[in-house]
């Protein structure tokens, strides 16, 4: 077994979500009395040789067997003493059991299949039946020194009883597994033996019925409960991200309300979920408010997982990553509980066991949070941009992503939006802003992923230039449908979500921003359909602002000058340079360059508008809390308000 083999094994099991979630688990290799182990904070999936922390095994084993009092956490103190060379990384709390197992390679994970066995009331008996002397079982023990000592005790007892060395498989009650071997092949083979034995036994038992999908109730929950929870579970002015799932495991109906199954679940998803029975409640916002208040009263903290039995699971986080990790950790636990019941009867961690992890975790979690602030101007805000597959919309999304926003890129052109969203770490959704069903579905999907939105930027727009004498009515209708009616439909779809957020976060403002145009401030020759739609947009902005101020929503427009380098102008077939040349909009212009020069010359600042200019206006609009219903020109001095 070489270091390269260890890394290969660690990466393979780390990437497999059925073995490792949220970077959990650990791996080590022994050479010449030194234990090289994965540091905490580095996931198995991306572990490299350079990451490994070298520790002297004799020092670790001394610490394991010594009862001399130490100052601070005994594992940490032992690690400090055993350190061969400081790599700047902290080894994990599980170093001691890695040291005492003699095999060269030790892999520790929290797999869902094996945990169906370890999270069982009669785990010991079941393990005997399924694996005989191929595995030993260590009942649940607090992490650190106590767990390592318990592992040693069980190994010694096994060796006494059988006269054989302990097997390579160790099952840790309500926790996970340890696989030990001298070669990578041995690790794979033992893992296969274990997984096959447990999965075969699970499959042999009848499965519980899963309630069928209730799409209507699910949508009602994500569009009402999720935005309410964003405010209820917020941290200061920063609303929570609430993500949800209505898949088989989410609907399973296993609430796990009696307690958590494994420490990972406590760390990422909290010990106890909040259970909401939404059916029969008309005012879901008030119901959620009351239920969260009761939960806080009982447990002294906010819930992370919210279960609507038979309908969905919702998870809260300070960002989407945290919320998704919580959700997946919880649905993993549901799977473990379901399968444990098929094997026997699920065992949940008792109050003392879970209390230890909750308090132990509190410290490190606080540290993690403190380290997690990146300080972007839009940190954690959910920002929706329509028409974001290209042009201004894409440019705005790219700018705002740099400031820590969670982005939704909505567009008719889903394929392109997806490519761009991936680069930004955002989400792409298909929407046709001129279609009522589409905008409503769009918002429901946003609520499903993020729980709602803080900023909605209505940017999708089209332009068809032409003379009033000849323009086809269809062109006029298209421009009106997208630019004017589309803005209305987007606001009608998103405003109720923001209004719910406002009910539970009354001191936070939300923003709707229309990307209008300088053509919304001044007529545009042979471009009347566009100018009319944009003038109309200003009327809508002012009127929406007057109404929605009551719901904590500011509504403003930004009126950009020409984005001469953007695709709207530059497109070789449909671009405005071509359209304006053909429509004879620029007197005497014979080439595209003539048209461009003509437009540049109109700008006192002598250049076209770029997305970064719009982002600056967006920060102003979002950050100020004393203006609404305005149109902010961003035109290089070309349009001045009167
Ligand atoms: N480009 C400019 O010079 C300029 C100047 C002032 C204002 N604006 C405004 O900026 C906004 C963006 O313009 P752009 O130049 O980036 O345009 P663009 O044509 O480059 O991009 C528009 C995007 O909107 C999408 N889209 C079109 N119709 C849609 C619909 N019905 N539903 C959803 N998505 C749709 C398109 O697929 C495209 O990805 C528009 O509102 C426009 O009026 C542009
Ligand atoms: Zn573990």
TrEMBL record:
Alphabetical list of PROSITE patterns matching this protein: ADH_SHORT
GO molecular function ontology, one term from the record: oxidoreductase activity, acting on the CH-OH group of donors, NAD or NADP as acceptor
Taxonomic superkingdom: Bacteria
Residues annotated as domain Class II aldolase/adducin N-terminal: 5-202
Pfam families for the chain: adh_short (PF00106), Aldolase_II (PF00596)
InterPro entries the UniProt entry points to: Aldolase_II/adducin_N, Aldolase_II/adducin_N_sf, NAD(P)-bd_dom_sf, Sc_DH/Rdtase_CS, SDR_fam
Q: State the SUPFAM superfamilies in the record.
A: AraD/HMP-PK domain-like (SSF53639), NAD(P)-binding Rossmann-fold domains (SSF51735)
Give the family per the record: Belongs to the short-chain dehydrogenases/reductases (SDR) family.
What name appears for this protein in its UniProt entry?
Answer: SDR family NAD(P)-dependent oxidoreductase
């Amino acid at each position: 077994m070489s270091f390269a083999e260890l890394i290969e094994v660690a990466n393979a099991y780390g990437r497999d979500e059925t073995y490792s979630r949220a970077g959990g688990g650990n791996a080590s290799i022994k050479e010449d009395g030194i234990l090289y182990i994965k540091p905490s904070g580095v996931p198995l999936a991306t572990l490299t040789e350079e990451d490994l922390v070298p520790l002297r095994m004799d020092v670790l084993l001394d610490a394991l067997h010594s009862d001399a009092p130490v100052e601070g956490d005994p594992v940490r103190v032992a690690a400090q003493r055993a350190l061969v060379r400081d790599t700047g990384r902290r080894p994990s709390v599980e170093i001691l059991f890695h040291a005492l197992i003699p095999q060269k390679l030790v892999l520790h994970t929290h797999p869902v299949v094996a945990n169906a066995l370890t999270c069982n009331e009669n785990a010991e008996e079941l393990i005997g039946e399924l694996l005989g002397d191929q595995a030993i079982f260590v009942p649940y023990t607090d992490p650190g020194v106590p767990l390592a000592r318990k592992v040693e005790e069980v190994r010694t007892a096994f060796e006494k009883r059988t006269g054989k060395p302990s097997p390579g498989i160790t099952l840790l009650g309500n926790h996970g597994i340890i696989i030990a071997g001298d070669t990578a092949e041995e690790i794979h083979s033992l893992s296969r033996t274990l997984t096959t034995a447990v999965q075969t036994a699970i499959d042999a038992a009848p499965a519980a019925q899963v309630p069928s999908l209730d799409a209507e109730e699910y949508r009602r929950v994500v569009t009402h409960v999720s935005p309410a929870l964003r405010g209820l579970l917020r941290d200061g002015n920063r609303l929570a991200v609430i993500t949800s799932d209505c898949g088989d495991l989410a609907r399973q109906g296993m609430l796990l309300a009696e307690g958590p199954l494994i420490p990972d679940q406590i760390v990422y998803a909290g010990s106890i979920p909040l259970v909401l029975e939404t059916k029969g409640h008309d005012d879901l916002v008030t119901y959620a408010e009351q239920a969260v208040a009761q939960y806080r009263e009982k447990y002294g903290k906010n819930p992370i997982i919210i279960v609507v039995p038979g309908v969905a699971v919702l998870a809260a986080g300070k960002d989407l990553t945290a919320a998704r990790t919580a959700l997946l950790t919880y649905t993993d636990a549901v799977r473990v509980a379901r399968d444990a019941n098929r094997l026997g009867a699920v065992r949940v961690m008792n109050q003392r066991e879970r209390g230890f992890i909750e308090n132990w975790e509190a410290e490190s979690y606080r540290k993690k949070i403190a380290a997690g602030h990146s300080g972007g101007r839009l940190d954690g805000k959910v920002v929706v941009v329509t028409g974001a597959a290209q042009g201004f919309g894409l440019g705005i999304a790219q700018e705002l992503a740099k400031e820590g926003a969670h982005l939704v890129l909505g567009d008719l052109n889903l394929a392109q939006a997806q490519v761009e969203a991936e680069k930004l770490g955002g989400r792409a959704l298909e929407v046709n802003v001129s279609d009522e069903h589409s905008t409503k579905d769009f918002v429901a999907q946003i609520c499903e992923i993020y729980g709602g939105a803080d900023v909605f930027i209505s940017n999708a727009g089209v332009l068809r230039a032409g003379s009033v004498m000849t323009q086809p009515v269809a062109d006029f209708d298209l421009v009106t449908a997208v630019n004017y009616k589309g803005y209305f439909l987007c606001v009608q779809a998103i405003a109720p979500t923001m209004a719910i957020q406002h009910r539970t976060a009354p001191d936070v403002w939300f923003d709707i921003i229309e990307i209008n145009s300088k053509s919304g401030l001044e007529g545009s020759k042979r471009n009347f359909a566009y100018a009319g739609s944009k003038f109309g947009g200003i009327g809508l902005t002012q009127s929406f602002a007057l109404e929605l101020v009551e719901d904590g929503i500011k509504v403003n427009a930004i009126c950009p000058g020409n984005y001469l380098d953007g695709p709207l102008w530059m497109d070789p077939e449909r671009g405005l340079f071509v359209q304006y040349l053909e429509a004879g909009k620029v007197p005497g212009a014979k080439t595209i360059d003539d048209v461009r020069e003509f437009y540049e010359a109109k700008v006192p600042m002598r250049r076209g508008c770029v997305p970064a200019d719009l982002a600056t206006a967006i920060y102003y609009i979002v950050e100020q809390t004393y203006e609404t219903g305005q149109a902010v020109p961003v035109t290089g001095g070309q349009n001045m308000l009167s």
